[in-house]
């Protein structure tokens, strides 16, 4: 109980603890999300738990109604009309920030990811053994499994929000220099949950692993390294695709923020089980960086 209170207090008052993620050469966000945004997220999680859609309470007519009406009139609806639905689902965005990315074959970011990936695989073996025999399960693994199970019990945005909140509150923000005596060190989730401390990439890695274990599809979750042009620091977050759009999970607040709302943040790399890719920022992306509403 004491650790959870300490984690909450540290999270609420800490400044961003992620001044250095080495290996990036391009141009994170910085600021605060309003209480109204956090309240909206809490309402969304609660509503989705009750299977209520708080964004659109208007019932949608069944798709077959147009065909039934046409048959009643003695006519066959045209193929074009049959293909049109009362509500057209928005096109799914293929990548965070709407940017293309090129595979990275070398560099410090790739080496750090390959190193932590091997530790993640070991963590997964520990979690699998814990599922079979809880009596010999380390306390760090028990805490991570509890968060994963909390996410599994939900779906959609509620699943993402629950895991984001739980991990933000489970870790005390601490720089690598303070904790490990080195400028930059990436830790797998069980190490982070053992020390109860970490910086931005440690939060992000723990969220990435928990989201995958809770059932989020591999293509729908990425680690993302950004650069904050305001303070000249690199920062790690998680991008998750929900209903075709990408939201950003940050250790500095509880709200889920759209990637399109990020201001003065330049995406550098996206990372997943397929490796590391560097974003290719076209000139049009300048409008995304400078013209989007502030949300930090």
Distance from first to last alpha carbon: 30 Å
Low-pLDDT stretches are 2-15, 25-34, 47-86, 283-296
Q: What is the average of the pLDDT values?
A: 77
CATH architecture: Roll
**Largest sheet features:** 7 strands, antiparallel
Helix/strand/pairing class, anyone? alpha+beta
User: How do the helices and strands follow one another from N- to C-terminus?
Assistant: HHHHEHHHEHHEHEEEEEEH
Annotation field: number of helices: 11
Name of the top-level CATH class: Alpha Beta
Question: What does this molecule look like?
Answer:
The chain has one domain: C8orf32 fold (Roll). A hairpin with a 7-residue loop joins strand 6 (245-249) and strand 7. It is 43% helix and 16% strand. The strands form two sheets. The chain has a seven-stranded antiparallel β-sheet. A two-stranded parallel sheet has the order 2-3. The protein has 296 residues and is of the alpha+beta class. 34% of the residues are buried. Helix 2 (35-49) packs across helix 7, helix 6 (139-152) packs antiparallel against helix 7 and helix 6 (139-152) packs across helix 9.
Entry summary:
With 296 residues, the chain is α+β, with helices and mostly antiparallel strands. It has a single domain (2-48, 92-291), classed as C8orf32 fold, CATH 3.10.620. The chain has helices at 2-13, 35-49, 65-72, 79-83, 108-132, 139-152, 156-170, 176-180, 189-195, 200-213, 285-291; strands at 100-103, 172-173, 197-198, 221-228, 233-242, 245-249, 257-258, 265-272, 275-280.
């Amino acid at each position: 109980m004491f650790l959870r209170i300490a984690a909450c207090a540290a999270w609420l008052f800490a400044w961003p603890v992620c001044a250095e993620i080495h290996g990036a050469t391009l141009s994170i966000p910085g600021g605060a999300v309003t209480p109204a945004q956090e309240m909206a997220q809490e309402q969304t999680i609660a509503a989705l738990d009750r299977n209520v859609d708080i964004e659109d309470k208007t019932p949608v007519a069944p798709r077959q109604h147009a065909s039934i009406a046409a048959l009643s009139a003695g006519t066959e609806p045209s193929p074009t009309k049959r293909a049109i639905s009362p509500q057209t689902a928005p096109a799914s965005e293929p990548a965070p920030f709407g940017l293309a990315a090129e595979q990275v074959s070398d560099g410090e970011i790739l080496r750090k990811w390959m190193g932590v990936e091997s530790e993640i695989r070991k963590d997964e073996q520990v979690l699998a053994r814990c599922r079979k025999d809880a009596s010999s399960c380390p306390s760090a693994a028990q805490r991570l499994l509890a968060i994963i199970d909390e996410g599994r019990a939900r779906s959609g945005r509620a699943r993402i929000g629950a895991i984001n909140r739980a991990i933000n509150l489970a870790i005390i923000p601490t720089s690598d220099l303070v904790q490990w005596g080195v400028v930059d060190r990436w830790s797998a989730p069980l190490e982070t949950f053992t020390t109860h401390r970490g910086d931005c990439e440690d939060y992000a890695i723990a969220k990435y692993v928990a989201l995958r274990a809770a059932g989020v599809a591999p293509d729908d979750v990425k680690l993302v390294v950004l650069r904050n042009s305001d303070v000249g620091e690199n920062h790690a977050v998680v991008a998750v695709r929900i209903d075709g759009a990408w939201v950003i999970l940050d250790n500095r607040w509880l709200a889920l923020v759209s990637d399109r709302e990020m201001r003065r943040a330049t995406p550098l790399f996206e990372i997943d089980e397929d490796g590391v890719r560097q974003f290719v920022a076209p000139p049009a992306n300048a409008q995304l960086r400078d013209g989007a509403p502030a949300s930090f």
